[in-house]
Design brief:
This protein is mostly helical and 104 residues long. The protein contains 4 helices and 2 strands; from the N terminus they run αααββα. The protein has helices at residues 16-30, 41-47, 53-69, 97-103; strands at residues 78-80, 89-91. Strands 1-2 form a two-stranded antiparallel ribbon. β1 (78-80) and β2 (89-91) form a beta hairpin. The chain starts with 15 loop residues before the first helix and ends with a helix.
């Protein structure tokens, strides 16, 4: 189901309704597999060695942040590594409020 995961580090639904709709799509197609008849959704995922779309998207986000930390992907946010006690903190860039006022 690669099309359901296309650009998942960049776009991932945050509304429960949207997440559920995507998950329902995977649930619908996984039930069509002959080997999985009579299994519930979790059993089908386990049998097919798959994770739910939500878990895979979480995994992709974690991998993407790791790549940004190691310089393997462009940094879209800054990270502060100075405080070792608290780990790495993400520093989001401040919004340009003047540009927003002009566009609105």
């Amino acid at each position: 189901m690669p099309k359901l995961e296309y650009c998942s580090p960049l776009w991932s639904p945050c509304k429960i309704r949207d997440i559920q709709r995507l998950e329902d799509f995977q649930r619908y197609f996984s039930v069509k597999i002959d080997e999985c008849s009579g299994m519930n959704y979790r059993e089908r995922l386990h049998h097919l060695k798959m994770l739910s779309l939500l878990r895979r998207r979480e995994r992709y986000m974690i991998i993407h942040v790791w790549k940004m930390l190691d310089g393997l992907a462009p940094k879209i946010i800054e990270f502060n590594r100075e405080e070792e006690r608290h780990g790495v903190k993400a520093m989001y860039p401040s919004l340009n409020h003047e540009a927003q006022d002009r566009s609105g």
